[in-house]
Amino acid sequence: MTNTYQQAKAQMGGDTSPHDTFERGDHLTPATTTPTGTTLFCIPHAGGSATYYTQFKNHFSDNVTFRPLEMAGRGRRSREPLSTSMEAISNDLFAQITPVALTSPYALFGHSMGGLLALLCTIQAREINIPLPKALFISACATPDNFLLQYPPQLSSLPPEELWQHIMELGGLPQCVAASKELCQYLEPILYADFTALDTWRPVSVTPLPVPITVFLGSQDTIPEHKAREWEQLTTRDFSIHSFKGNHFYLQDNWAELAAHITRTLSPAT
Q1: Residue 35: per-residue pLDDT
Q2: Of 50, 24, 67, 72, whose CA–CA distance to 190 is shortest?
Q3: Range(s) of the domain holding residue 46
Q4: For position 9, which CATH number holds?
């Protein structure tokens, strides 16, 4: 397997080998580790895995414990069946978050589909009365209300060629990935499962949360800034929005600046 191939899988959020990921968990902080400072849980986009955030972790100081979350059926959990409902996925993620939430400060970051899952996890924390996150960081994601209007219908029903064309238009398909039949075959079931979850999700009205919300987006994304600002309606605390040059996957070129914004929010200067 070439370095180019490995880098391509990391860009898409895949692991370097679908079969060795239980032995290769170096991109994750073990759940038994006692966190220092604030734990930042990062939830990937549709089709992504924890390895998508490999570069991101290098830009945080010791007062942030970086923990990318893995969803079933990919990465180090590739032997587990894929989930096809937002409720099942968010329940699984929440189970990973809860042990830390009960003992120390934490925050949630979610990109695209991951932003909606981060919101659902925060709602679950409120429903069962456990500590809420210090902050909610939403990246390249419309509010649940706008999701129903903005989200392309039935992506899970598209033939593979059209599905990959959609991914390419979002800016999430490196040429080296498109050229790899093996990689596309590995990623397709993950993409279809995640898009099935989105296609069948029917969000309910959200009562504003007492959690600060920060929104990040790319200047060339399909989500306009005025729509992204509607996340402010879902918080009773501070709200801010930051735009970066780029498309839906703007973060690939802005890891350091993105981490700096998050660090300032979690550890403001006194």
Answers
A1: 60
A2: 72
A3: 3-266
A4: 3.40.50.1820
